[in-house]
Amino acid sequence: MAAEGAKGLSHPKVDRYAQVPNGSTSFYFRTRSALLKAAAERLAELDLADLMSVANPIEGDSLASAHASRLATMVMLSAEEPRLTRTKARFELLLQANRDPDLAEAFRHNSEIFTELHRREILSRSDSGDAPDPTVLDEQTAATMSFVSGVHMSFIAGDRTITSAEQLDLLLIGIADGIAAAYNRFGAKPR
User: Fold this and answer.
1) 57-86: string of b/e by CB count within 10 Å (b at 16+)?
2) Residue range 85-93: average pLDDT?
3) How many Å apart are CA 72 and CA 63, to the nearest integer?
4) 94: helix, strand or coil
5) For residue 187, is it left (φ>0), alpha (ψ between -120 and 50) or beta?
């Protein structure tokens, strides 16, 4: 998926890549659609393990540096192998998921967890002790998630403008703070 895209995925190629006898893949996944769904489910399984390590940190776990959030650290890990290959495959599958509800379902749960991680990061980094207005928090979450998607696309394209978790964290905080400041300044409500 990462090297040739969804169009390049076939049973014989998977057999060769996995170094299994010809026909093995088609025995377990009879159709191309079943093969795509299996790839999406496996990718979602691997991503979920990463997301859960961030969502539910283990005492003494050093995923995040002293100066960057766990989420920013995890995003930066997606720029390096083997996660970069997964990032490329995920985007290929997400494009296919727009036309295939079974593929979309494979990613739905992880998307909800990723959204919640963004919300938690924004709440934990909030300047005030008060919880932000839920509408503002929704806007901050949507904006930071869109930004991270763009960062992932940059990684896929080989662009390393964002070079560290600390830099990414600073940008995410700036986006969230800018949205909060705009709402405070103008008193506007979205939509």
Assistant:
1) eeeeeebbeeebbbbbbbbbebbeeebbeb
2) 93
3) 10
4) helix
5) left
Cis, peptide link before residue 82, omega less than 30° from 0: yes
Token pair listed for 122? 């924004």
Contact 47, 117 (CB under 8 A): no
Q: Write down the architecture of domain 37-186 according to CATH.
A: Orthogonal Bundle (1.10)
In the chain, the percentage of residues whose pLDDT exceeds 90 is 46
> Which residue is it, tokens 């990718």?
43
Identify the three-state secondary structure at position 42: helix
Q: How far is CA 51 from CA 34, 130, 182, in A?
A: 25, 26, 30
| pTM of the model as a whole | 0.82
**97-153 pLDDT tens trace:** 999 998 898 888 888 888 888 888 877 776 555 667 888 999 999 999 999 999 999
171 to each of 21, 78, 104, 139, 141, how far by Cα in Å?
A: 48, 17, 29, 16, 13
Amino acid at 44: A
Cβ atoms of 54 and 71 within 8 Å: the answer is yes
